[in-house]
Design a protein that fits this description.
Elements lengths: L5 E11 L5 E11 L3 E6 L5 H8 L7 E6 L2 E2 L5 H5 L2 E4 L12 H11 L4 H14 L15 H13 L5 E5 L7 H18 L2 E6 L5 H4 L2 E6 L2 E6 L1 H4 L3 H6 L6 H11 L12 H18 L8
Parallel strand pairs: 3-8, 3-9, 6-7, 7-8
Antiparallel strand pairs: 1-2, 1-4, 4-5, 9-10
Bound molecules: adenosine-5'-triphosphate (ATP) and magnesium ion.
Amino acid sequence: MDKTPVRIELKDVSFKYPEGTGALSGIDMKISGGEFTGILGANGSGKTTMLKVIDGIMKNYLGSVLLDGQEIRRLSPRMIYGRMGLVFQNPDDQLFAASVYEDVAFGPRNMGFEEAEVHERVVNALRAVGMEECAKRGINNLSYGQKKRAAMAGLLAMGHEILLMDEPTAGLDPMGEYRMMELLTRLNRENGVTIVMATNSVELVPIFLHRLYILSRGRLKRQGTPEEVFTTPEEMESVKLRLPQIAELIWRLKNEDGAPFKKVPLTVGEARRLMLEFLKDGKEKGPGDGLLA
Ligand SMILES: Nc1ncnc2c1ncn2[C@@H]1O[C@H](COP(=O)(O)OP(=O)(O)OP(=O)(O)O)[C@@H](O)[C@H]1O
Ligand SMILES: [Mg+2]
């Protein structure tokens, strides 16, 4: 029996923008405490809208959105922001102070912490995102990736139990993407932070996430583990996504060239293990018998 409490629940949620764009339709979703959930979807599929509805920013939805069992539109901002924070897709929408330090300090100061505690929180948050050397820099002359990490530090300094992340890796370089995902994984595993992350990065998702939803044109199409959600190249194309490249290669070898792979791996690490098994089998059977002989 699962005893982890449900922290966020969406029941038959639909949302329309004022001029009529239907952005979400009939969404049902439950997120338990301590989960690291991904919302995977193409551009315009409704990811940002969904996170803003969950965070209580957009209140005129149909259906119901519950935070710890309470309807979000009935909670005061303080009750929401003490527990849950949203890191915007575009850091320019989040950052507003003159310097990195001041921006990151704003949240904890607003929460009423003493200045010594504020300082410690700012330093720790900047260290967590690898920005400690940029504390005195002006926001306006940071690179996009640095802004993204500064915005993340601002939320970390407040120490939320639930983080909503809108495309946290978009616009970061390959190492930056990994560092961001590792940071989120650490927050989730070591600090028990519940994370909901919107993304379209099909390569990163199977390495880091255990539970996924696919959103397409405002509807949830699939949910489950990456293995359950990533199916065939054709199905992924129908939701304007694709398989990770390594998975696509092995899927084609298996299904179009008849290579006897038992499963389609989603990560390079898994594919490597599978290939090594093949090489070993091939050797045992002798030249000519094995697949890769
Ligand atoms: N402020 C707005 N006013 C009207 N329509 C909007 C607004 N913001 C988004 N939309 C529309 O709602 C739909 C969902 O947009 P949303 O930004 O939630 O998608 P997304 O999955 O976050 O896309 P992306 O990957 O490009 O960030 C799209 O059709 C979009 O054009
Ligand atoms: Mg978006």
